[in-house]
Design a protein that fits this description.
Layout lengths: L7 E4 L6 E3 L11 E2 L2 E2 L1 E6 L1 E4 L6 E4 L11 E2 L2 E2 L1 E2 L6
Antiparallel strand pairs: 1-2, 1-5, 3-4, 6-7, 6-10, 8-9
The chain binds zinc ion (2 copies).
One zinc ion (ZN) binds next to loops.
Length: 85
């Protein structure tokens, strides 16, 4: 269950601030900004990991036709499949 929220993006409708869930644990997560609950966006962060050292990064605002290809340990990083359990 906790994995499903990984990469979720919440936005404050008042000031436009955005936050991304990187690692959710078992608590009840309900971010608040400007005294009101933040809204959940359709958009999700994309996660990439290094097959060599297991470093992780999150692309918070990925574009649909992006040529983004991070490299770590001299190897291309691998995109984590969002729908994987
Ligand atoms: Zn706000
Ligand atoms: Zn690495």
């Amino acid at each position: 269950m906790s994995a499903s929220l990984r990469g979720e993006i919440r936005r404050c409708a008042f000031c436009g601030a955005e936050v991304t869930v990187l690692a959710r644990r078992c608590g009840v997560f309900a971010p608040v900004c400007c005294d009101r609950p933040m809204l959940t966006l359709e958009r999700r962060a994309e996660f990439w990991f290094c097959p060599v050292c297991s470093s992780e990064l999150a692309a918070v605002a990925p574009r649909p036709v992006s040529a983004f290809q991070p490299v770590c340990c001299d190897r291309p990083m691998v995109r984590e499949i969002a729908s994987a359990p």
